[in-house]
Amino acid sequence: MVVLAIDLKAILKMATTFRAWLLLSAVGTLTLVSSAPAAIHTTKVKSSVDKCKPLVIAHRGASGYVPEHTLGAYALAITMGADYVEPDLVMTRDGHLVARHDNELGLTTDVATHPEFSDRFKTKTIDGHEMTGWFTEDFTLAEIKTLRAIERIPETRPGNARMNGIFQIPTFQEIINLVKSLEISQQRPIGLYPEIKHSTYFQGLNLPMEDLLVETFRKNGYIGSSAPVYIQSFEVNNLKYLKTITDLKLLQLYESNPSDQPFDQVVAETGLTYADMAMPDGLKEVAKYAAAVGPDKSYIIPRNQDNTLGEPTSFVQDAHAAGLKVHPYTFRAENTFLPTEFRSKDPSKAAIGDLYGELRAFIATGIDGLFSDQPDKAVAIRGNCMHS
């Protein structure tokens, strides 16, 4: 077995905050397996994790406590009791899957402090939107590994920002290795919930992710609908293609603006919108290729003009009638993300409100799972869930 070396200097820096200490206690006693081929186990993975309700999906890891999409964020989420960890996946120039919310690196890494990469600063059009920065598809994995993660929203999460510069950008294989290691110490199954980012864009660069993702899962023993896996996307055609090559569970994501179109549908000029897909007939069409839907929370309980929660819609019932599970996103504890009635009186951006109140309102609608940046709070309100 190949053992992943842990940087002692990084660990000591991590221990400067209580939350990082929790992470250290979780990771420091583990034998982490590296991404070397010898470490891949092909034994078929099955689990009863999906018997928990609602499922708790750690959104980008425990990203409310540790910079998102880092091994630290995923490890902490698992020790907090999350059923699944969610890595967003993008591609490197040399064809490796790495975890970043977007292929633009400037918001979540220290790439701007690397003068050797100044010539990679570019303006591109991604899914119809112009973006300027540094992009994963212009870097090899070896170059990506010289970068370090930083907090995306430091004004809202200053505690996370104190851990800037500690963590590398992980590959998908490294995340799988971490999950398998923690399954041993936690003595329970832990699911993987990757999102394919910008599928049409990467296909246009001859860097498609779909087959590589399925093959990576296969090599690690994740095969069939009983595996603790969901593959998610905001696009449609890549999910339909995945349905033809794998029995792993698929989830159709819905953008927050129902009038938007999945980008592949924009390219194909079909006119299909997320609003169409949220109607009863639209959900029945989604059920032909997906096992679940991941709507923005507003599809389930919209907000009133004063930012309080409104009345629940029929979305959950309609999805269930179509045979679909419902996993809405994203539940966050900071005031800036909460409905007005659940905000604390502290006016600061970093102030924590009553996430429990919002969670109770949505759980009452019958949702089957939820994405949260603070998975410990969702686990606490759900109560114990025994995994056989």
TrEMBL record:
Pfam families: GDPD. PROSITE patterns: GP_PDE (PS51704). The keyword Hydrolase applies. Transmembrane segments: none annotated. Its EC number is 3.1.4.46. It comes from the Eukaryota. SUPFAM superfamilies: PLC-like phosphodiesterases (SSF51695). Keywords: Glycerol metabolism, Hydrolase, Signal. The keyword Membrane does not apply. The lineage of its organism: Eukaryota, Metazoa, Ecdysozoa, Arthropoda, Hexapoda. It catalyses: a sn-glycero-3-phosphodiester + H2O = an alcohol + sn-glycerol 3-phosphate + H(+). Gene3D superfamilies: Phosphatidylinositol (PI) phosphodiesterase (3.20.20.190). It is an enzyme of class 3 (hydrolase). Belongs to the glycerophosphoryl diester phosphodiesterase family. This is glycerophosphodiester phosphodiesterase. Residues 54-382 form the GP-PDE domain. One of its GO terms (biological process) is glycerol metabolic process.
